[in-house]
Design brief:
This protein is an alpha/beta fold and 241 residues long. It has 8 helices and 10 strands. The chain is 37% helix and 28% strand. 39% of the residues are buried.
């Protein structure tokens, strides 16, 4: 089996003025390539901490993190930066686009950080803009786009380096229900095409659109279920009644 990410017995502690906060407590999580996972839980459950560790934005206090086949647990800052640029796509609730750049230029940003220039790379950005429905908005700037269009730019940008997986942090949090549905349809389409997606959300209806829901509570995995398994359990309970 090919793996996108594997986390074993990971803890994360923060030392604050009031003492030590244990944000994660021995978390195990394995994400096969091609999976679509929703990470859910109440505020303070550890969702953001887990996302930061998967995105190589932070290091665990203990435990092991493998992305693909590489153990990144003790990687230095330079290597973590390389991994973020080449192996991980990021989608944020607030889009995080550069307002001075056009749609096409925003999509290009991860390539530029890696020193990739030229017609081949510009062609890929054009193709991704078209794929997310923005082929006619290439020269628009973020302020000239709707929230849904800005998130589509962010999705295209997250794919430009053909990442190992995409991390989506509340990707529909700033969108109305109709636009959220469009974005979720796009993410589902990407997953059907084989892209691995790990998404943090607090919205049950958004989580229900994925293949698998991992619930955190107090820094630990409370449950980890495939949606098919959850439906089967629901049917079984009805039959027992």
């Amino acid at each position: 089996m090919r793996w996108a990410a594997r986390i074993h017995r990971v803890t994360k502690e923060y030392v604050l003025d009031g003492g030590t906060v244990r944000a994660l407590r021995g978390v195990d999580l394995e994400v096969p390539a091609g999976d679509y996972v929703a990470v859910m839980g109440a505020s303070g459950s550890g969702k953001s901490t887990l996302l930061n560790l998967l995105g190589c934005l932070d290091r665990p206090t203990s435990g092991t993190i493998l992305l693909g086949e590489e153990d990144v647990t003790s990687a230095d800052d330079d290597r973590l930066s390389e991994i973020r640029a080449s192996h991980i796509g990021f989608i944020f609730q607030s889009y995080n686009l550069i307002p001075q750049l056009t749609v096409l230029e925003n999509i290009e940003v991860p390539l530029i950080y890696q020193g990739h220039y030229g017609a081949k790379y510009r062609k890929r950005c054009h193709e991704l803009a078209g794929m997310v429905g923005l082929g006619d908005r290439l020269n628009h700037r973020p302020t000239q786009l709707s929230g849904g269009q800005q998130q589509r730019v962010a999705i295209a940008r997250s794919l430009v380096n053909d990442p190992l997986f995409v991390l989506a942090d509340e990707p529909t949090g700033n969108l109305d229900s109709a636009t959220s549905d469009e974005i979720l349809n796009l993410l589902e389409s990407l997953n059907r095409d084989g892209k691995t997606i790990i998404m943090v959300t607090h919205e049950p209806d958004v989580g229900a659109r994925t293949r698998r829901i991992v619930r955190l509570m107090d820094g630990a995995v409370q449950s980890d279920q495939r949606l098919g398994e959850m439906k089967d359990e629901g049917s079984k309970m009805k039959d027992e009644r």
